[in-house]
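queue> holo job accepted (magnesium ion)
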Amino acid sequence: MAKAKTNYTCSECGGTSSKWTGQCAACQQWNTMVETVIEAPGANRFSQSAHQALAQTAPVLSLKDIEALDVPRFGTGIEEFDRVLGGGLVAGGVVLIGGDPGIGKSTLLLQALANMAQLKSVLYVSGEESGAQIALRAKRLAVDAHELKLQAEIQLEKILNTLHELKPQVAVIDSIQTLYSDALSSAPGSVAQVRECAAQLTRMAKQSGVTIILVGHVTKEGALAGPRVLEHIVDTVLYFEGDNHSSFRLVRAIKNRFGAVNELGVFAMTDKGLKGVSNPSALFLSQHDNQVPGSCVMVTQEGTRPLLVEIQALVDASHLPNARRLSVGLEQNRLAMLLAVLHRHAGIAAFDQDVFINAVGGVKITEPAADLAVLLAINSSMRNKALPPGFVVFGEVGLAGEIRPAPRGQERLREAAKLGFSIAMIPKANVPKQPVEGMTIIAVERIDDAFSRLRELQ
Ligand code: TYD
Ligand code: MG
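queue> job finished
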């Protein structure tokens, strides 16, 4: 096949050049030139044919005349996976699943495909493993692999051909970074290849109605390798999270054109593959026989589901000129901000102390409702005094030292009560109108207020 013509386009400004250059001649940015396929020149917009082209464009409709059809969905046979997808897969939808190597992407997709193969035609395209390796895994997972079609291929054009001929309803591409298109000369995994392959596959999905699931690798920084444009091209972006050392895996929806984001699926990795955990709220609590200093339990809300997570802090005298601030599973910058609030509004200084915080179980908490728990854990570690038993909190802390409400407060309280927590310190605006059974509520407005109310309890 003849090579398609390519040139280099700046990913910042769109400037082009026929050769690769380190710096874009148009906008002077460095390392932004990416190889791209030159599209066949379309009709010039000033030529005669431009008018014909315009005449064929889609008609302009008013929104009220367009029927709002509910997209039909089909399940993957894995309840937790359907939950993150917003109820299941959509025909013609493109899903991108990212995650660290070895976290379980291929395992989950093989399980899902094997389930779906009972009713639908499915195709598994693997560029990473041979057919024998996948067969071995299917055996290990004890899934029914009779109807599962497999192709070990990395050339995009051949894969598109197979999709065209086989017309599967669901296809998994494992992984997008191993594919290459003949049209480009750059290596598989390069920005240009990843973008081109994803765009072509997406076009195929939209035209033929096949649901495509792309597997993507993440870089060291935790972003999906390849361009961010990948996230714009696809309909749904899911991320695998979790600690490689623990058996729990979380799948989170980052973007979903067909459902809510921040929905969370919880799995446990077993010797028979990934198993859904339907009641995960107590998963991220560590088991202490007695209350220990530096530990505070919070209720976080992930999508529609409240989760109880233990936040741990360790504060220790620093011997470095710049005291260390380290956070695992929580935002680092927010920690510095919270320590400043702690100093200014509660009079507790930590400038000469190393501060480490950790969300137990490898869970990542991005919502600001974790602030209050972080501050209480830090204070508890500093004073070497444990929080009372059955104590749970949530609430955002503002720069003025105020405690701001968190969404869905009542649901959080109910979940905590269900798991046996009996005292909740929450923002005043979150106090429920009806009391929650078995739960004493301490409403606080300011951070210093929170500390003084806590001292009464200890
Ligand atoms: P895998 O799905 O190959 O990861 P990815 O495709 O995201 O790179 O996951 C492989 C890991 O999961 C590997 O370390 C072994 C483990 N595993 C189990 O613990 N149990 C199993 O049944 C399977 C198939 C894998
Ligand atoms: Mg894999």
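queue> The pocket of magnesium ion (ligand 2) is lined by residues 105-106, 128, 174 (CB under 6 Å).
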